[in-house]
Design a protein that fits this description.
It is a single chain. The chain is α/β, with parallel strands linked by helices and 316 residues long. The chain folds into 2 domains: 3-149, Thiolase/Chalcone synthase (Peroxisomal Thiolase, Chain A, domain 1, 3-Layer(aba) Sandwich); 162-308, Thiolase/Chalcone synthase (Peroxisomal Thiolase, Chain A, domain 1, 3-Layer(aba) Sandwich), CATH 3.40.47. The chain contains 11 helices and 10 strands. It has helices spanning 3-9, 14-21, 35-50, 73-79, 96-109, 133-138, 181-185, 201-223, 240-250, 261-264, 271-281; strands at residues 57-61, 86-90, 115-122, 142-149, 159-166, 174-176, 197-199, 232-235, 290-297, 301-308. The longest helix is centred in the C-terminal third of the chain and has 23 residues, at 201-223. The radius of gyration is 19 Å and the shape is globular. Bound molecules: coenzyme A. Coenzyme A binds next to helix 2, helix 6, helix 8 and strand 9. Residues 220-309 form the Beta-ketoacyl-[acyl-carrier-protein] synthase III C-terminal domain.
Length: 316
């Protein structure tokens, strides 16, 4: 959906959206399509890219599970022909994929699994208020996935260390009020608006810049990298101005920033793997590049990690 299409039904303009967010278009699922559909397609392609159809665990990062109960991951696993494997959801909004990567890495390093399919998928437009010009301008639907496998710490592709964090005192900055146990156990009826996603855009902007920059700095320290060592920075694609501010805080050359927000918007848990896939497909990330990943999201949550890009290409 282009900015022009949005502007036909809401009080906004292509010019406002492009200058304030850097977004030109985003993808919106058709009615009836849910997160599992996106997750299955991304999972199939990641498995194909890995050269093998199997995995022994699946971690799905999502903010928009198909249903509040059960988790969406087991159904996705079955639809991928992986019935029987460990499968669970991770809920950390836009940080979800980095948290899920950490969970997958932990499963492997603890010896619980040897191959883990990690998917970030969100049909985020399904929780947006169609009349809210701020959120509809920013968010889009999307998914991406990777396969992690056991290997040696010095191999290209070895992932980590991780920096993960949260601040629940600021949980209300982005929220869907209804649909959970708090609303269900209260007596009153729920207003329709409570089922929609709300955010305090300005406060979220400030927090996103601060938290991604701080988390990136911590993970660089842990890994012994300097900022000049980072060949490519894949940050959560929340807003082009947020990306530029994080790069400025880190004193990172902006030409090393991965950007695909103009064509997909903010795809929440899908954001980091989609940006990664697009950058590899475009030849912007190449084997041997030292890559920093960082994300920020509701909760609040944040997380970062590093890896040296291995010789592998995405399947679309
Ligand atoms: N089109 C036109 N005007 C819009 C608009 C739109 N799509 N969305 C908001 N506006 C208006 C506001 O209503 C406001 O009008 P007012 O001054 O009459 O009240 C004006 O633009 C300025 O709003 P403001 O919130 O100050 O703009 P901003 O420059 O902070 O940009 C966001 C708003 C939402 C784009 C920006 O704050 C942002 O990106 N925040 C982070 C959001 C995010 O990343 N969320 C996900 C977390 S991972």
């Amino acid at each position: 959906m282009t900015n022009e299409e949005l502007a036909r039904r809401l009080d906004t303009s292509d010019e406002w959206i492009r200058t304030r967010t850097g977004i030109s278009r985003r993808h919106v699922v058709n009615p009836g399509v849910s997160t599992s559909e996106l997750a299955v397609r991304a999972g199939q392609r990641a498995l194909r890219s890995s050269g093998r159809p199997d995995a022994d665990a699946l971690v799905l990062a999502t903010t928009t599970p198909d249903r509040p109960c059960p988790a969406t991951a087991p159904e996705v696993a079955s639809r991928l022909g992986l019935t029987g494997i460990a499968a669970f959801d991770v809920a950390a909004v836009c940080t979800g994929f980095v948290y899920a990567l950490a969970a997958g890495t932990g499963l492997i390093s603890s010896g619980i699994a040897r191959r883990v399919l990690v998917i970030g998928a969100d049909a985020f437009t399904t929780i947006l208020d169609p009349q809210d010009r701020t959120t509809t301008a920013i968010f889009g639907d999307g998914a991406g996935a990777v396969v992690l496998r056991a290997g040696a710490p010095q191999e290209p592709g070895a992932i980590g260390p991780f920096d993960l964090g949260s601040d629940g005192d600021l949980a209300d900055l982005v929220a869907v009020a209804a649909g959970g146990s708090r609303q269900r156990s209260s007596k009153g009826p729920t207003a329709e608006a409570d089922h929609y996603f709300r955010m305090d855009g300005k406060a979220v902007f400030r927090q996103a810049v601060l938290r991604m920059a701080e988390s990136s700095q911590r993970v660089l320290e842990q890994s012994g990298w300097r900022i000049e060592d980072v060949d490519r920075f894949v940050a959560h694609q929340a807003n082009a101005r947020i990306l530029a501010s994080v790069a400025a805080r880190l004193e990172l050359d902006e030409r090393r920033l991965v950007r695909n927000i103009d064509r997909v918007g903010n795809t929440a848990a899908g954001s980091v793997p989609l940006a990664l896939a697009d950058a590899v497909a475009d030849g912007f990330i190449r084997p041997g590049h030292r890559v920093l990943l960082s994300a920020f999201g509701g909760g609040l949550t944040w997380g970062s990690t590093v890896l040296q890009w291995p010789d592998c290409a995405p399947v679309y």
